[in-house]
Amino acid sequence: MTAPVMVDERDRPEETWQDPSRGSIRWKTLLSGDVTASEKLVCGIAIMDAGETFALHSHPDPELYFGLEGEVDVHINGTVHRLKPGIALFIPGNAVHGVIHADQPVRWFYTFAANAFADIAYTFA
Predict the structure, then answer these.
(1) N or C: fewer beta carbons within 10 Å in the chain?
(2) What is the pLDDT of residues 84-121, one digit of tens each?
(3) Ordered domains of the chain (ranges, CATH)
C-alpha cells in the first residue's frame, strides 16, 4: 500500500502526443505510477481549445470522462455523446472514441484503472 498523494494541477506540465495524427489534445497527468507514488489508478485533466482534435482511438481499459469546463461531442462507437460540466461519461474498454472537433475550449477529468499512463495500450484509427 502506498501513502496518500496530493497533486496540484497547477504544478503539472501540459503534455501532448508527439505524433500529430493523434490529435492536438493536451493533458496534465495528475496520478500515474511512473510520475507519482501511486498505484492502480491513472487520472488527469484533458484540455482542448476550439478547433483542436483527439483522433479516434481505442484501448483495452475502460475509461471515465467527467466534464469540468465547456462542452464537446465525444464520439463512442459511432454515437455522439455531449460532454459538459457535471456529466460523467463511461467509455467501455475497446470502444472506438475521440473528439473529431472541439467547437469551444473544454476541459475534462479522465481516469483509468491502471498503474501508469504508459500501461494504456492506445490504438489509433
Answers:
(1) N
(2) 999 999 999 999 999 999 999 999 999 999 999 999 99
(3) 17-116 (2.60.120.10)
User: Percentage of the chain with pLDDT > 70?
Assistant: 99
Express each pLDDT in 60-70 by its tens digit. 999 999 999 99
Alpha helix segments (H runs only) across 1-125: none
Question: Are the beta carbons of 69 and 85 closer than 8 angstroms?
Answer: yes
**Residue for grid cell 467509455:** 91
18 falls in which pLDDT band (50, 70, 90)?
very high
- How far does the chain reach from its first CA to its final CA, in angstroms? 37
How is the beta sheet containing 97-99 ordered, strand by strand? 79-83, 72-76, 97-99, 54-58, 123-124
Cβ neighbour number for residue 72 with a 10 Å cutoff: 25
- From the list 26, 44, 35, the residue with the least C-alpha distance to 112 is 44
Going by the DSSP 8-state scheme, the letter that residue 68 receives in this structure is E
